[in-house]
Amino acid sequence: MLYERSLMSVKANFPWYDPRVADLREQLLDAARDVLREKGIMGATTREIARAAGVADGTLYNHFRTREELFLALFDRVLPLVKETLSDLPMRVGQGEVAATLVDVLVAALGFFRESVPLFASVISDPALNASYRAKMGAQGRGPHKAYAWVEKYLQAEQRMQRVGPDVDASTTAQQLIAIAFFQAFVERFLATTPSAAADKRWASAQVAALLADWG
After folding, report:
1. Where does the pLDDT of residue 92 fall: very low under 50, low under 70, confident under 90, or very high at 90 and above?
2. N or C: which end of the chain has fewer CB within 10 A?
3. Residue spans of beta strands (DSSP E) within 107-210
4. Quick check: pTM over 0.90?
């Protein structure tokens, strides 16, 4: 019932909205993700993706003008996995334990990298795709370096409140935190391990405790 009311509201405010189009777009993105994982960037042709989605090649181009645009849309789809946690950091300054906040950041970053590591590998291995992604992110003021910028600003704010020592290098700590999540996601992908929420929390808590131990 709630879903039906929400859908009616969307249609009332956006009469041009067609859920079938949105569903098909998601179907194409799912197919592109699966083909990338199974066949790599060389095998992820638009024809192969369209076949995996069960649609004609032309249908794919109705939603994405190029293969690059399709792959870049995959990045945008997984960003919410970490963006919400990072954008909430300013409101967490002075609230709760710093360690608990960093644990939440690490868990969110790990979830994001689990989905995006295959995409990163595909993008980096294709010069044209990497250039397109870099240009798009640069034009929008976005990029992987922005992830640790949020954490760095959070730590600096906590330093001003004297909840983090003045000798702590906020920039280096932020980069370490994000790098830890990326490497863990890479190792999990390589070993084909099955993660769990409880294990993620224990892992993140241990990693943050090790970082904080170096603060003295």
Report:
1. very high
2. N
3. none
4. no
